[in-house]
Amino acid sequence: MSRFLTKRHSSLVPYVPGEQPKNTDYIKLNTNESPFAPDESVLTAISAQIELLRLYPDPESSVLTDKIASLCGVKPSQVIVTNGSDEALYFAFTAFADSLAFPDITYGFYPVFAQICRIPYEEIPLCDDFSVDAARYVGINKTVVIANPNAPTGLCLELCDIERILQSNPDNVVIIDEAYVDFGAQSAVKLVDKYNNLLVVQTFSKSRSMAGARLGFAIGDEALIADLHTIKDSTNPYNINRLSAAAGYAALCSDGYYKRNAEKIKENRENTKKALRDLGFFVTDSKANFLFAKSDRIEGGKLYEELKSRGVLVRHFNKDRIRDFVRITVGTDEQMRIFIDKIKEILEGRQ
Ligand SMILES: *Cc1c(COP(=O)(O)O)cnc(C)c1O
After folding, report:
1. Tell me: the pLDDT tens digits for 234-263?
2. pTM for this one?
3. 198-203, strands of its sheet edge to edge
4. Ligand 1 within 6 A of 161 CB?
5. How far apart are CA 235 and CA 232, in angstroms?
6. 211 in contact with ligand 1, CB cutoff 6 A
7. Which one of 31, 33, 85 would you pick to mutate in the ligand 1 pocket, going by the greatest count of ligand atoms within 8 A of its CB?
């Protein structure tokens, strides 16, 4: 820390992303990216932008915004495109939150954004089975943010529970972070016309194979979206670069490709879940593109290390209640086969 860092930032604890090793030999199952390349049309779309890179991009990202709106069945004025969904969350916290409530075990960025925005927050414990107890958010009178499915547990809330939270907090925004929704949860997008306090956040990083492009979006009532534009235009009006906007648009035009990939991931998830359970693991019933698992036979940190030394990266969180677990991104058939082989090796004490 330099002596110039302001006092208000001196105690900031930044988010620690999963490792992004320079060495590409690892089987990378640690940050929930897609194992599949983007659709081929993305290359053509990006190439067409090269000459135009000398110009600033469209600050509204209109072409991409309109496409998202039409696919989601909402008006373009109900959509804002952001630099990753992390930016949508940051804008929303900045715009709407005087105080926040979110689960004690969830996406690690929520407390970090709360701290940098200096918003007090309450961490609501998950139930013993790691499910989100909607009753604990009823009438809480704070801005609520819930990842659905939640990370790193993979568990979902039903839409009726989300509606209870929305109805009982009419004076607060309820943010539903749907980073993993394409792998089996029900989307709350269909509720945005019914609840003017609902903001749904989605991303291109997981199911759409584009974590490197940094694209996300938020959908909600027009007035909420207008407020997010105010924050965006006060911080980073050109938040989406031309290449990413073009890539995102092309990706949405080949929606079938991503849907098929998501189906494949779901199939691999179920097979890997079964294989882990057959090996005695406890595995949550994840509806995301990752599994959350623990074994009585090996501690979570140790399993992470043993897998890493065998060339497989998973994620371990050194945190109360989940220290025994690892989170495993679901990859291709081949990757999952190697992963399970390595697990067997480790449990049998082989090298
Ligand atoms: C991955 C993830 C995001 C953010 O992804 P971006 O790459 O910033 O779009 C947001 N929320 C959750 C719960 C995530 O796991």
Report:
1. 999 999 999 999 999 999 999 899 999 999
2. 0.96
3. 79-82, 216-220, 198-203, 174-177, 143-147, 100-103, 121-124
4. no
5. 5
6. yes
7. 85
